[in-house]
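Lecture notes, unit on protein representations.

Consider one protein chain, 340 amino acids long.
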Amino acid sequence: MTRSTIAPSRRLATIALALACSLITPAFSQTPTPYQGPAPYSGARPQSIKDGVQIQTAQREDLVAMEDGIPTKAPATPKQPRKVLALCKAAGYVHSSIPLAAATVKAMGEKTGAYTTTITYDSADITDQNLAGYDAIVLDSTTMNFLDDPNDAPTTAARRKALLDFVRGGKGLVGLHAAADTYHSPEPFTNGPPTGTWPAFNTMVGGFFKFHWIYPQLLTVKLDDPKSPLTAMFNGQEFQIHDETYTLVQDSFSRRNVHVLTSVDYSKMSAEDKAKEKFPRTDGDYALSWIRHEGKGRVFMEVLGHSEHIYANTPMMEHVLAGIQYALGDLPANDTPSAK
């Protein structure tokens, strides 16, 4: 990982700006649903929630590491000024990395001039009127039914329609990590893998969660499309990385639906680690990032991003930045499904 040299005064100013931005957000439309899944595993940071409300401020040391590692140049020149909405609402597990991921997305856009970002923790911002001012939405580890108001079915339906119409009408959608842990039946999965609860969304993002290897699982990441501008930063070489890594329900994810950029080199995973997976895929296909068209719009998904250290990894953030620019329509890339 390369790191830039930054003057202390500039670094402190950047940290202050990121902290301020993470605090200037609309009020919640509802209290996040407490996570009901397995107990936190040993060594994990606690959920980013206090007294039923999501924490919206990243830790200072994470912001410093992120600032040192983020890209300094965008892979494409914007065709016009671009605006991104980063939605951080989690209705299931609340990842500790959510505030940092949002600050990273914002800082990358500002540092490279690729786009500007508004950060929100309120799903009420997903309306036709509000989305008209944006070019892409970043789903920052949103979990479970993140758009829904359980007490207002018409509002839920309107938000869902607004999101689908936004993307299908020609805009962009970016999903980070737990954006894949959305709209499926709840844990525990005892009698089989989960089932999708919003098919249109499940198809649009490319699949949904069923299991994860817990942090700090070591993975070998292979490049499925080394010629893509979205993987150019990896220089054609597979690499190793530690993170919590999702696996997707086999029936929900297919290369006939998405263009795979990176995936787990499953052949290099130990038999012991393979045996940990619930309801393992029979095809050994564990994609980590992909792109696809949805109507006139574009979708980029990155499954890694559970741990804060991912957001200080320069090549990984160059990958995410390229994915955002693809979703914005500024970085052309082959998004033909990987298998037909």
